[in-house]
Design brief:
It catalyses: N-acetyl-D-glucosamine + ATP = N-acetyl-D-glucosamine 6-phosphate + ADP + H(+). By secondary structure, this protein is an alpha/beta fold. The chain is about 40% helix and about 20% strand.
Length: about 300
């Protein structure tokens, strides 16, 4: 038995896994952001709640493990940022620990139990507040040792003009320090940014989507530009990876007409032609971070036996 954790900036959620088909969510507790001792004690308390002795723990975190130093980059939880977190938790809890990026865990969950079942190469794309991704090949996470594979949201690559007819798009500054990243336009905040640029209107992504679905002219123009901007880098990612399915998670994945538009545009821009949807809504709707971390932990446990 292993215990998986989904570590977010506001809450820590736990899950208990006896097998790939037996993963049960546990409760949730507030995340101690600035106190590492309290962070460890929160994990310890969740473990104790199960009444069982796990063989290892696996954590899904909104951060990245540096594959060279094994130090975690996690700006929104300062007490674990910069730590060799796996080693630190192993020392404090006396259990083998596995750390993985949340988008990687999402991709792993979809490959193992979701829309990617039966596909050799699965690219999981996150269209949430921002843009993320993870890559699974032959059932294995490419980032098993940490790293940035699948991060299609970053790099100065968005088009300088988009839409029909084309309109100039600024190279928006990105939180990663670069300009013109997909992350600046592809998530919910990016959609809002585009609408402001195009129409000088401050609307939430929900309002923009709602107006688009009603046929409102300005929102329709924004969605046209959005799809044009996002489809090309996603098509390039598919060409490079050879993915045959792209499950999408995050808040924008709930807008199925938007996914259908994006799927149509992506399939028109890739080398391999599909007569079926390629960019699809994710199927692991409940806690994919927990599921993906559990699957990674179970694989690690099997390999250690």
């Amino acid at each position: 038995m292993i215990i998986s954790f989904d570590i977010g900036g506001s809450a820590i959620k736990g899950g208990i896994a006896h097998s790939e088909t037996d993963i049960v969510p546990l409760g949730r507790r507030p995340t101690p952001k600035n106190d590492f001792t309290a962070f460890v004690e929160t994990l310890r308390a969740i473990i104790a709640e199960t009444g069982e002795a796990p063989s290892r723990i696996a954590l899904s975190i909104a951060g990245v493990v540096d594959p060279d130093t094994q130090r975690l980059i996690c700006a929104n939880i300062p007490c674990i940022h910069g730590r060799t977190l796996a080693a630190d938790l192993e020392a404090d809890l006396g259990l083998p620990a596995l750390i993985a990026n949340d988008a990687d865990c999402f991709a792993m969950a979809e490959a193992g139990l979701g829309a990617g079942v039966g596909h050799r190469i699965v690219f999981g794309a996150i269209l949430g507040t921002g843009v993320g991704g993870g890559l699974v090949a032959d059932g294995r996470l490419v980032n098993e040792a940490g790293g940035f594979a699948g991060e299609w949201g970053h790099g100065p690559i968005i088009a300088s003009a988009a839409g029909n007819p084309p309109v100039a798009i600024p190279a928006y500054a990105c939180g990663c320090g670069q300009k013109g990243c997909v992350d600046t336009v592809g998530g919910a905040r990016g959609l809002e940014r585009l609408h402001k640029t195009l129409h000088d209107l401050d609307l939430s992504s929900e309002e923009i989507i709602g107006q688009w679905r009603q046929g409102e002219e300005k929102a329709t123009r924004t969605i046209d530009v959005y799809v044009d901007l996002v489809a090309s880098p996603l098509a390039l990612t598919i060409n490079i990876t050879g993915a045959t399915i792209v499950p999408v998670g995050g808040g924008l994945s709930n807008v199925e007409p938007l996914l259908a538009e994006l799927d149509h545009a992506v399939r028109a821009r890739i080398l391999r032609k599909f007569d079926r949807p390629l960019v699809v809504r994710s199927q692991c709707r409940i806690e994919p971070g927990l599921i993906g971390a559990a699957l990674l932990g179970l694989k690690a446990e099997a390999a250690a036996l």
